[in-house]
Design a protein that fits this description.
Elements: E1 9-13, E2 18-22, E3 27-32, E4 35-46, E5 49-54, E6 59-65, E7 68-71, E8 74-78
Length: 79
């Protein structure tokens, strides 16, 4: 399933440590520091809200506001 939406792409923390890529196929891939693919899973977007289901079993969510992604206590900016 391909999700064409305005939020697809790379989102990063200000320090660049966390790199969170929202892929157009409904999957995400998150790098932390030098560890590529530290977390992977699927996501769904409804309006400006995002829900995540990680492949390891945990869930998370977030919200997009004014071009910023607020996710699990992190603030990510579009790259």
């Amino acid at each position: 399933m391909t999700q064409q939406h305005k939020y697809a792409g790379m989102w990063v923390t200000k320090d660049g440590y966390i790199r969170h890529e929202l892929l157009p196929n409904g999957r995400y891939d998150e790098a932390r520091g030098k560890k590529k693919s530290a977390y992977q899973g699927r996501y769904e977007i409804s309006g400006d809200h995002i829900d995540y289901w990680d492949d390891t079993g945990f869930t998370a969510d977030g919200d997009f506001k004014d071009g910023i992604l607020y996710h699990a206590g992190m603030i990510l900016y579009r790259e």
